[in-house]
């Protein structure tokens, strides 16, 4: 799991101008949900990026989701994105 989160971090840093990325695994809080899948993660991203802050919130989130598209299709069920200055 830790290696997978490092892969996500690397993808984001390699493709978007970021100062920092923190990945928080919130999967355990969703176990009681009807659509819960133990093979998929519920993640929260805390991103520091002057570049993303210069874009509209929607454009920044689309850019992040484009980089993580295959992960969202296969390993990530839910993604909360927080972009900080």
Radius of gyration, in Å, reads 13 Å
What is the 3D form? globular
Distance between the termini: 28 Å
Low-confidence stretches: none
Strand order of the largest sheet: 1-2-3
Q: Compute the number of helices.
A: 4
CATH homologous superfamily grouping: BolA-like
Instruction: Please state the structural category.
Output: alpha+beta
What's the β-strand tally?
3
Mean pLDDT over the full residue set: 90
Named at the architecture level, the CATH assignment is 2-Layer Sandwich
Strand content: 25-35%
**CATH class designation:** Alpha Beta
Count the domains.
1
Taking the sheet with the most strands, its summary is: 3 strands, mixed
CATH topology: GMP Synthetase, Chain A, domain 3
Oligomer: single chain
């Amino acid at each position: 799991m830790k290696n997978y989160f490092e892969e996500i971090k690397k993808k984001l840093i390699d493709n978007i101008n970021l100062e920092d990325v923190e990945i928080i695994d919130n999967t355990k809080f969703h176990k009681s949900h009807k659509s819960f899948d133990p093979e998929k993660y519920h993640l929260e991203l805390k991103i520091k990026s002057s570049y993303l802050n210069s874009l509209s919130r929607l454009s920044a989130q689309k850019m992040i989701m484009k980089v993580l598209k295959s992960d969202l299709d296969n390993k990530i069920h839910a993604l909360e994105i927080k972009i900080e200055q």
